[in-house]
Amino acid sequence: MRMVQATLVAAIAAAVQFASPALLSAEESGRPALMIEIDGAIGPATARYVKEALTTAGERRVDVVILRLNTPGGLATSMREIIADVLGSSVPVIGYVAPSGAHAASAGTYILYATHIAAMVPGTNLGATTPVQIGGPLPGLPGSAPDKDGKDKKDDAQQPALKDAMTAKATNDAVALIRSLAELRGRNADWAEKAVREAASLSASGALQANVIDLVARNPTELLQLIDGRTVELAGGDMRQLATKGLTIERLDPGWLIRLLSVITDPNVAFILLMVGIYGLNLRVLHPGRHRAGSGRDDLSAARPLCPQHAADQLRWPGLDAAGDHVPDR
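Given the sequence above, the corresponding structure tokens read:
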């Protein structure tokens, strides 16, 4: 009887020893793959959401993060924050343009280039990464229209040169950024530069053939199966082999504060809030005696313009927009 027990123990130990390491790490560890989603224009709230999500992923020691992209682009400053967080992540980040009909245009293309593995769903596209300026020039500044008296005509000769210099500066900086990301991840740097200088775009199949992305996957489950066993390089040069087959996917939604910031930093909403605050101040000036000084209603009317202050700080002359045409003309 003891001999039978000893044989059974030895058989179980051998089975455990020779079990697939990937199967054990993926199915027995209980750690899911986290999915974070960027939908719409990229701004300060988006950058904060990605930063907090990657921090959470590192604390939970998850195996992989799927960054799903569907964006027309966004602010260059927020884009660079996201890229820095992805490059410094202790967890592999898989860029995934989805669902069908989605796009990773402009700033989204830069972010996709920064991810450890880049993937797309059939029927999606990326590119058009030429930086553009938000809004138009302010009156009285170089590049503005001359006034009725023609006082600004003397600056007309300087305007084209200044505009060309600013455009060249922004374009060359963008080219250097996306080429550095392409070289880091071993992707097509020449096409990346073409996307900046000529606003070139590609479909999912075209991006795969041009070595802009690593694979095409129809759904997240297929994505995890295709990347299983691949080796990626993390921050600091650490190499990690992915064991993603069989992982469950857990979506990590933004908190209430980030959702609030997403609303008030939207250019349309910020403009409406600003106009409400301006009208509130005008009403207080035109009717100074209607409310008692120091009353709650008086303080409220004076505080109305503060609501969009965060949005205004982000939207007023933020440099160059890495998006495209998602910022509406006023």
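The longest strand covers residues 33-39. Try to locate this feature in the token string yourself.
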